[in-house]
Amino acid sequence: MDVKNKLQAGAIFPHVMVTTLNGDEVTLGVPRGHCDWQLVVVYRGRHCPLCTKYLNALESHVEALNAIKVDVIAVTADSLEQVQEHLSRLEVSFPIGYGLTTDQLKTLGVYISVPRSEQETDHAFPEPGLFVINEEGHLHVVDISNNPFVRPELDALVSGLKWIRDPDNNYPIRGTWQQQDSELIYR
Question: Where are the transmembrane segments (predicted)?
């Protein structure tokens, strides 16, 4: 991945549209309902048993995330048919977007892999990415991995987001220091 494609903490989340299983066109980073933040989970696809496990585990946290006004969506480069087949192993209530192109994956700054064989899948696919976008459309939390074995632990993620969302904590976006900053300003 080219460093210039890495999404920067605090930056405006890029405009990426996906189609969900119910046929809706949605813009990633734009929360639904009463929520004003969104958690976007980029997953490898139906061929990945770790993705299936992670998405099913995420389902048990959706209520807690919605309680702190964080919407949840998962997205993949899989086709509609592949996602529909994957549903036989998924037990999730959040929307799933499909058909991400390699250009969209590059825009999101995730690592992209090629399948090891036709049995794995028939297209280039993303490695895991997790993005939390705040009410201003800024990237508040970012986590990308180049393999399926490293992902944020969900209990810690939800606990951390509860803490961040508490206005009494006044917790800023972390990781925004730039080399050209001339002095250290405590935030």
Answer: none
For domain 12-169, give the fold.
Answer: Glutaredoxin (3.40.30)
pLDDT tens digits, one per residue of 36-72: 999 999 999 999 999 999 999 999 999 999 999 999 9
Taking CA atoms, 177 is separated from 14, 74, 164, 173, 185, in Å, by 20, 29, 19, 10, 10
What's this model's pTM, rounded to 2 decimal places? 0.92
Q: How far apart are alpha carbons 97 and 25 in whole angstroms?
A: 9
Is the CB of residue 72 less than 8 Å from the CB of residue 38?
yes
CB neighbourhood size of 54 (10 A): 20
Q: Are 5 and 100 in contact (CB under 8 A)?
A: no
* 3-class SS of residue 52: helix
User: Cα 83 to chain center, whole Å?
Assistant: 17
